[in-house]
Amino acid sequence: MKEFFSQMGKYFARYKGYIAGTFAMNILAAVFNVFSFSILLPILQILFKVNTERYEFIEWGTIGMGNLVEVLKNNGYYYSQQMVDSYGPSTTLLFLGIILASLTLLKTATYFGGSACLMPLRTGIVRDIRSDIYKKILSLPLSFFSEERKGDILARVSTDVNEIDGSITSSLDMLIKNPIFILVYVGTMFAMSWQLTLFTLLVVPLLAGGIGQIGKKLKQRSLYAQSKWSDGISQIEETLGGLRIIKAFIAERKMDERFTKVNNEFRDASMRVAIRQSAAHPVSEFLGTCMIVIVLWFGGYLIFSGNSPIDASGFIYYLVILYTTLQPIKDLSKAGYSIQKGLASMERINKILRAENNIKEVAEPKKIEALNDSIELENVHFSYNEGHEILHDINLSIKKGQTIALVGQSGSGKSTLVDLIPRYHDVSSGSIKIDGEDVRNLSLHSLRGLIGNVNQEAILFNDTIFNNIAFGVENATQEEVEAAAKIANAHDFIMEMEKGYQTNVGDRGGRLSGGQRQRISIARAILKNPPILILDEATSALDTESERLVQDALEKLMKSRTTIAIAHRLSTIKNANEIYVLHEGKIVERGTHEELIEMNGYYKKLNDMQAL
């Protein structure tokens, strides 16, 4: 339970009022339940005439903690005898039955009230966990997702959260209600006969021990089962993304066999968890019956020997309370192993929630409104881990309004270098400065607000064209969006679509061609109007006609902006103020296009290969 409260305590703290409400309601429900059972005693006395003793009324003012039960019992019998004498046994039974029904109504009403108070808690905790995961995903650096499978993350957000809902939050009712019921019932049993209750409590470890054996290893087995389903989700996600390749290489059978293997492993793991879980009810039922039999024998022995602290009808009432106590005990044990199963999912979710974000702001970050002078990279080194270094001793300067280009073979570190400027990653050593201020001293919001991106893969969302262009810009008007689309050479093809700017682009922009997607992403950058622009191979995946349109849009976008362009096609960056050639993480050449050609080095070789 310590682990349970350490992991879930912060969520419970948000709903303290509802927890207090359900505690109060369940205390009332337990008290009404005890009193409703007590009505059975005079009913049994009347029906079977097992008690011919005449009772005298005891003043209520004489009630103390020591004689509370005796006075209540005496006066209850007194009133029932008075009613029998005045109205007869039949009418008295009817009246007592009405009291029993009324107490039962109060009991069920408060029981319902306790469960109703838990509903905002249950649904709220699940909502809060999902919200926390999503916020954490948004805040984590890109390096976290390069090491995690997308399908595994999706499984944690969906399947694992559902498991918490099914295992932990559904057990809250049992977890809060049952200890209250057990305490009230055991307190009542002690008040009736502390000797018999002490003997009963000696038998309880038999029941608890049997249930405890079932709960062992349930968390580990559940954790293994959930990890297997994560493998399945990952494969489904990969299949959806690579369906074209699967069909092209006639690999449907191979992929089906892979999924069948994972699916069977998940089924076997889930079956072992379910079998262990389902064993709890019959085992607890049997052990509970054994407990009743032992107490029945011992109580009967005391009554027959004449040493019993309670009479026969009281013993029947005691057995009713004892049997009623068994169900909360069994429910509490069921909640215990159900929670163990849910904690396995919470442990997987915590791998996201407790993941360290190494992109941190200083205590009082500075805000930056514009680029006034330059961007400087000084002695920059970078590696994703302690081992292989990606960038080595990078030094470059970008003056305001200049366009610089980064070229080199794939894997030379171009994209990594530009990712350091908006702090998607932090440098391992060295510094990046904007107007002389280290970017690590700037607020992330203001830093990234200066920068616009156009990437090789135009990332669009499953939304309208209007919302994709206006993405990240608050309160953008139709006129502003259309003006940006016209500059990006996108307005004409947008107006030819069925709903114009309200046309949905589909998943990842799948309803548009590559050139259309790229022009919409350029329009998005134009609308943001950033002083710094990063172009990451923005035209490399396009055909000649689309490239011409996109290049024209880019040239309009680059006017009066400081631009960093990554390019494989050297023809697109001939007019750059300076070109940096990267090879294996180092700058090996720098200069204008003409200067680099004259050097007759690596750049010249790239240029000749493309010309050929």
| CATH domain fold name of the largest domain | ABC transporter transmembrane region fold
Largest sheet: 6 strands, mixed
Spatial strand sequence of the major β-sheet: 6-7-8-3-9-10
The assigned CATH architecture of the largest domain is: Up-down Bundle
| Total domain units | 2
Beta-strand residue fraction: 5-15%
Query: What is the count of β-strands?
Result: 10
C-alpha end-to-end distance = 71 Å
Mean pLDDT: 79
Q: Uncertain segments of ≥5 residues (pLDDT<50)?
A: none
What would you note in describing this structure?
With 612 residues, the chain is an alpha/beta fold. It has two domains: 2-353, ABC transporter type 1, transmembrane domain (ABC transporter transmembrane region fold, Up-down Bundle); 374-611, Rossmann fold (3-Layer(aba) Sandwich), CATH 3.40.50.300. It is built from 23 helices and ten strands. The strands form two sheets. Strands 6-7-8-3-9-10 form a six-stranded mixed sheet, with helices on both faces. Helix 2 (16-38) runs antiparallel to helix 5 and helix 9 (194-215) runs parallel beside helix 14. The longest helix is centred in the N-terminal third of the chain and has 51 residues, at 89-139. It is elongated, with a radius of gyration of 37 Å. The protein starts with a helix and ends with a helix.
